[in-house]
Structures are given as structure tokens and as C-alpha cells.
Amino acid sequence: MELLLIIFYDLVILDKLSSYSNIALLNPTRCEEVLLLGSNCSSFKNNGRKNVTNMETIRLNNRKKSLNIIHQRLNVGHLISHYTTLTINKNSLSENKEIFHQWLVGFTDGEGTFSIVRQNEKWNLTFKISQSTYNLRVLNYIKKQLKVGNINIEKNKKICNFRIRDRSILFNIIFPIFDKYPLLTSKKFDYDNFKKAYFILSDSKLNSIEKDNFIFKLLNELKPIEYISSAWRIPLDTVGAFRFSNFESLVDNTISNFENASKVMSKPWLIGFTEAEGSFYLVAKSKDRLVHAFEITQKKDKIVLLAIKYILHINTKVQYKKSGYYTIVTTNSRAIENIIKYYGNTMKGIKSLEYRIWARAYIKHKGNFMALNHIREKVRIMRKKYI
């Protein structure tokens, strides 16, 4: 009789949990550590419980569509195109919500995290953007625009964080932004799992043990090495429903020209991403020659740098460095002039100040080693106070 009851209980669990695809039933475990999606954390405290083997893993039925957990971009018409006559500047970044939302997604692709935290037997979801206090003003700008969230400065007074933990705010404000304007880097994988965790925790049909099982499974999922955000695959028919097979794509995980890059990467997104990851600096070509340089690096997501290359008309190739990252960098005068024009009067954070100093130095002092070296030292001193 006891055996029959156990079997019946397992069938009930399977029926409850069949809504979640690609998630296996695991033994409950405890983890008091902060788990960042996309981090290297791969082990959890088990407290002596039996580990589940592959043979004990129970695969569940696929019902992604009904839960609407993962959103594909079905229509790209809402992107702010590089062909638009709409003015994109500091004012429109504050006044036009669609422009700001795309900027925010770009900045998050560079500096944001979606984390799942297990503390005191409870799960917490956190959307966070961290910056040096040198750029505290960009977090104040984000909070002012969203009208939600909290900012704290860490004890060392060098790092500040913008956080949203309230699940109702995540659902009503953050998810709609990142569903309409998907992340373009591999952080899209982290966001998708973050959102799955939200739906698991919100499912009243699951008990706490079942929720734990699913979320630990999510945290055990490894991001594919060659993962590319689904935003980089746009079907030819962007008006109708997304066809999952036998369709022709406008963009199919590869970028080879300005037109294709512009179909996925909007100008507000690129401004936000550059504020997070871009560098405007002066580099020595010889002992008495300084030139202007622009660079963006990424550990993964080569496709993102390829798109930036074409949008900014940079002739140099995206390179992979031995230290383990991709980079697009240019010192070409024509490319620098394109970049100065592209980013003029756009950025909101401290990168805006660095850009203005850099651009003015090019216009007024190009080729003047003494003047450029003086400017470079002043910028270094300015940054050193905070970093």
C-alpha cells in the first residue's frame, strides 16, 4: 500500500510540473550563496541529500507556448532605425520612452545582471546594474526614468548598484521592456532563465519543494559556448507569426553589411551599450605621437561587434585576443570622424564627458602631441579619483 501511495504521489508531481519544458525533477538542495546567472557557480550545498543521476532525471512535457515564458521578436518595426528622421539626443533619451527603453537594454547588455538569490530558505530575483561611483549619475538617470528601484553605494565607496527586487515591478515594468526589445548579447540566455524562475515562483500549483527543484535545474543549465541571442534571427515575414521551420530569414545569425546590422541593432541600443562598454581614448603611436582611438571589447558575442563595425563604418576586423576576448578598435581618421558625428550630444552618463573631451581634442588639437598628452593626463587624474 505504501508503494502505491508513493507512485501516485510521483504521478501527481509530474502532472503539476509538466508545464515547464526542459526542466528536470531534482532532489531538494540548499544554497545560501548568491547565484548569478551566467556566472561560474556550478555547485550547491546538498546537506547530505542524495544526488540525482541522469537515470533519475525526469523529463517533462513541453508547453512553452501556453506559458509564454520565452518571447521571440515577432515584429521589428518598433526599433528606432538608423534611417529614421527622429532625433536621438540627450533630450529624446529622457523624453521618448521607446528611445530610453532601447538605450536601457543596450546598457544592460553591457553592465546588467539578472540574478537568482537563495537566502534563508527563500528565492529572490534581482535585476541589477553596477557602476563605479565615477558614473553614479547614470544610475540616477535610470532610476528617474523608470520611477522604480533603489540605489546603494557599497562600503568601499567605489561601487554603486541600481536594483529591482520587487516581483510585481519586474513583471509590470522590466519584463515588458526586455520582451519588446530583446537583449542582443548572450545575456539573453540569462534573462530567459530569470523570467522562467519568475513564472515558477509565481505558480500557485507548485509547492516550495517543486519550485526548488525547477530553479536549481535552471541554475544548473549551461549556456552553450556558441550561444547567440534569438534577436539575431529575424524571419522574412515579420508581420505574421514566427515560423519555426522552413523559413527564410532577413538576418540569420550572421552580419555582413550595414543594412542587416541596422535591422537588429538600433541607435539607442548602441548608445547605451557604448556607455557601458565603449572606450574613447588617446593612444601613443610613437614617443612623440598620440592619436585618437575608439574600442569596444566583449568576451563573447562576436556578432555584436560585427554589427557595430558596420554601423560605425569601421574598416578594421573584429579580432580575437589570446587573453580571451573579442575587440573592435580603430584609429583611422575617417572612422573617428564618423564616430564623433554618430555619438554627438547623445550619452547620459560620465562617458558623455569623456566623449566630449575626446571629440574636442580631435577637432582642436589633432596632431599636437603636447596638447593631446596634457589632455590625456587630465582625464587619467579625473578617473583615478574614483577607480
From TrEMBL:
<dbReference type="Pfam" id="PF00961">
    <property type="entry name" value="LAGLIDADG_1"/>
</dbReference>
<keyword id="KW-0378">Hydrolase</keyword>
<dbReference type="GO" id="GO:0005739">
    <property type="term" value="C:mitochondrion"/>
</dbReference>
<keyword id="KW-0255">Endonuclease</keyword>
<keyword id="KW-0496">Mitochondrion</keyword>
<protein>
    <submittedName>
        <fullName>Homing endonuclease</fullName>
    </submittedName>
</protein>
<feature type="domain" description="Homing endonuclease LAGLIDADG">
    <location>
        <begin position="270"/>
        <end position="362"/>
    </location>
</feature>
<dbReference type="InterPro" id="IPR051289">
    <property type="entry name" value="LAGLIDADG_Endonuclease"/>
</dbReference>
<keyword id="KW-0540">Nuclease</keyword>
<comment type="function">
    <text>Mitochondrial DNA endonuclease involved in intron homing.</text>
</comment>
<feature type="domain" description="Homing endonuclease LAGLIDADG">
    <location>
        <begin position="104"/>
        <end position="198"/>
    </location>
</feature>
<dbReference type="InterPro" id="IPR027434">
    <property type="entry name" value="Homing_endonucl"/>
</dbReference>
<dbReference type="InterPro" id="IPR004860">
    <property type="entry name" value="LAGLIDADG_dom"/>
</dbReference>
<dbReference type="GO" id="GO:0004519">
    <property type="term" value="F:endonuclease activity"/>
</dbReference>
